[in-house]
């Protein structure tokens, strides 16, 4: 299915032991290096599988398994270790305990400074960027810590579409070029399928979601201030009342904008029937096409216009105006 396209991974809360634990270098001494074995191990695996070039492997060893890959087509992939802003899973499970040390500093790990350095270099070079990670930033507030989330939002605001939109002379919200695309995922990987210009990503919350980032930290949410979208696809790993799933994105190979997205699901209620045999595994069925499902009322959008933050804001406006557009099946 994936062919020979490159694979870009992001470390998640189940990729460390103990689960979700990553210590910031800022705490100093041996405690700061206690998980370096894991970063070395992951970097070695990615190098062995030829997923990453040497420069990215070296970054992963020293940046908590985070890295940047600069592709020859002008796209940069920045992978973040989002365990470093992970707050909790439940009331009795506080996820990464090390995140509670020196909480007045929103970036004790330096992970977000790494992100801004890479984004600034991309802006100076005229490159476009995809950010991939595991724990989403924002959402309903239960997953990420408040201060790193606020800082991440400001970073997205700083490096969002206006940076290069006027340079290539797109003059409408419909064609407002995104400097950034953000993908969050569980066992997060981005697979780029060269021939078909498509990408596949998996999800962190195990749910099918999206988040709109607005200018000025979201103080005004309107079609004019919608800047960047974070895609959170369904997860292969099912959860309580959540089916297994994955999503495939169609990508504009010139701008790296998302033109469409296709989602497949697997019904976990059918899994007990598989227990008595080993020849067959779960089956996935096509669930929906994003543009067709949500874009029926967005008549000013053509088939080759991107599903960007502006488009998604118009979708929410249409849903607010007509509650019949919001259904649960």
Structural summary, described in words:
This protein is an alpha+beta fold. The protein has 7 helices and 12 strands. It has helices at residues 36-48, 54-62, 111-125, 146-158, 162-165, 290-294, 309-321, and strands at residues 7-9, 67-70, 75-79, 128-133, 180-184, 189-193, 198-201, 209-214, 226-232, 244-251, 258-266, 285-289. The chain has a 6-stranded antiparallel β-sheet with strand order 1-6-7-10-11-12. A 6-stranded mixed β-sheet has the order 2-3-4-5-9-8. Strand 3, helix 3 (111-125) and strand 4 form a beta-alpha-beta unit. Helix 1 packs antiparallel against helix 2 (54-62). The chain starts with 6 loop residues before the first strand and ends in an 8-residue tail after the last helix. Mean pLDDT is 82; it is low at 162-178 and 193-203.
